[in-house]
Amino acid sequence: MDSAFLTMRVAAPEHRPWVVVCNTVGVPDTVFDRLVATLADSHSVLTWSTSLTENDEPHGRPVGLATGDLVTAVTEFLHGLGVVEFTGVSWCSGTEILHRLSRSGKFRVVGHCCINGAFNLGPDGPSSDWENTVEPLFRLIGARPDALPGVSALLNSAADAATEGGDPALGFPYSTPERISGYAAQCLEMKRSRTLAGFVDSQRTGLYLSGSEDAVQAPAIARRAAELSASSFELVEGGHHAMMADTQRVCDRVREYCEAVAPERGGR
Length: 268
Hints:
- Helices cover 37% and strands 16% of the residues.
- It has 8 helices and 7 strands, in the order ββαβαβαβαααβαβα.
- The chain has helices spanning 33-39, 67-81, 94-102, 134-143, 148-164, 177-193, 219-228, 248-261, and strands at 6-11, 18-22, 44-50, 85-91, 108-115, 207-211, 232-236.
- It has a 7-stranded mixed β-sheet with strand order 1-3-2-4-5-6-7, sandwiched between helices.
- Helix 1 links the parallel strand 2 (18-22) and strand 3 (44-50).
């Protein structure tokens, strides 16, 4: 599927259990190449990318994407494939998408594994330090368009530093001022729409994986989410925010979890 804002990628051998990998906004699905390859001989896998600008051109008009629109598009695509049952794997704010899919009443979510993603903490605490760091910059872009070049330079500098540390996902959203503008709009919309009660709902106990070197979300946030949702928590020493991209042991652990909770037959 390739629409104005969503590109789906499916690896679907016959009669294998489904894994739906819920991506964060504005990051290409190639960040999951290692994970998909790890799951390839045991599961059918769905991943996606969301555009930041019109037709995803680097200097196109920013895309305004509502969280509900993304959930609806993913739901329609899954139903088109005949998928009614899957194990959910989420990364970062993709956890909000998985949360909504799991509580829509349209799927049986067998289990869920959240990689550096913890949302819906409500009164028990913020989802991350994002509220005090990146969010004010994103709001500044909307209020002061003239500030965009300066914010662009600042975030690109931070992304370059993080990429040198092994995080391959951060450079893409910040690659041009136009992309940053689209990324900011989508992130702020997702923040506004975030549900404050409840967590991902699945038939089997969930698993939160958190990288000890994650500079985006403190491991304590994921640990607390696991406690509140009666899920398991595991700390990955040395893991950064996009650790599934280049840390094989993370991909192996996700596969181990998916195999442990998988139904006897795929959800076609």
